[in-house]
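This part of the workshop introduces the protein records we will be handling. The question running through the whole workshop is how a given chain folds. To make this concrete, we reproduce a full record directly below:
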Amino acid sequence: MNVTAPVMSESVAVIPPYATMLGFTRYVTRTGPAKATFVGGLRRARERRSGFNPHGQLVKALKADIAFRTGGSYLNGVTDLVKDRWKPLYESVSAGALTYLASLGDPEQVSLAQTRDAVASVGPLAVKINPHFGLRYEDGRREAVRLHFDEAPPTPEAVTATLHLMAGHMDQILPNAEPVLVDLRRGVTHRMDPAVKPSDIESWLTGEAAAFTAMWSTAAA
């Protein structure tokens, strides 16, 4: 007992600051005390290694419709495949997903491309960059796609942070691709604003990451 108790205590204390891209971009949209509360929740989830993705079946259906060029047949049927508790969610998101699928144009001109996750060092914070899939067009264009499922549209801050984080690691994610964030409920695609200076975004995110890291350490106390 005298040996194991200190080891257990130390293992909790040294959990390093970490966020997924979704967690970090949700954090930067918060203000005041809500930031610290949110970071504390992320740390506790990290300690418990908890987490559940309710959108997995929908992502698979969308990717299947793109890969097999089936025009939405998988998306039209996916709501019937999930548990009753998730049906309202799938009903509210699948219509926008069909709109997005149609916006890709001729199904024969677009296909899936393999993407890889990356880990970004944003100041002192490790952030996992994880797009949902990649696209390859017949004209040579490529896109790395991250999906937004929330009921509210993504804020400008969330859009900017997500696209910047992906763009900075595109050599690992999908070389020569453009990052896009798709607001799936509304079928709207967001792209980088060429008028925004990357250096300004980098400074902003580095400051946010430093504050996140400090709150993460405070949550451990």
Summary: The first strand starts at residue 18 and ends at 20.
